[in-house]
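Title: Request for sanity check on Type III pantothenate kinase prediction

Description:
We are preparing a figure and want to confirm that the structure record we downloaded matches what your pipeline produces today. Could someone re-run it with the sequence below and paste the raw structure tokens into this thread? We only need the token string, no images.
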Amino acid sequence: MILELDCGNSFIKWRLVSGAASKACCGGVVGSGEELVLALREQPVTVLGCRLVSVRTDEETSCLVDALERAFAIKCVCARPAAELAGVRNGYEQYERLGLDRWLALVGAYHQVHRACLVLDLGTAVTSDFVDADGGHLGGFICPGVPLMRNQLRTHTRRIRYDDVVAELAMKSLSPGRSTAEAVERGCSLMLQGFVHTQLDLARECLGESFEVFLTGGDASLVADIIPSARVMPDLVFIGLAMACPLG
């Protein structure tokens, strides 16, 4: 089995896939390299290799790679910035500055359809990327996601204090909030929806009326109803990762 890793700033998303079909047999989310090693040792399979994408520092990534190579006697291959990959051209003026997770997600999206697409990643941060029909990346946008907006309000506003259970209950509807928790949670959700509506308008300007929309990230479900035709693909980054780092 091949180990695939998406190493974000806060968490490491992992999955094990068969080398030929890239079909995932198991996976999860952990908070550290130590937790990852423990989780993998519980799996009744043999890890033969590893490919990963990381937005962490070089030192943090190297420590993780060293731990995995020592624990499982495997070689880890890390995704690197590229000006072009699989027919997609990086649209940043300095291509190496585009976040690797964004790059792999938009490459993976274009590879699915080979036509114009809008890629929306709705996680701790929210990103959008526009790819034209010829595989040209036109750029994108970055803004705070719901977790960042919520945490900033909790941190910097003294009277906003409530737990995650209350937050979940507050999202039963989007009517005007009658408590602080409802007002904050529903307000953040509506800001996210407003961002998505704006991206759709911009996509029509940049890409024309015919384009595919891809949704990924933990909060994709919050906007899925807005775009019923969108492709919801939680593992979009892994699709691009397999193309950037072929193994076996």
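Thanks, this matches our download. The longest strand covers residues 137-144.
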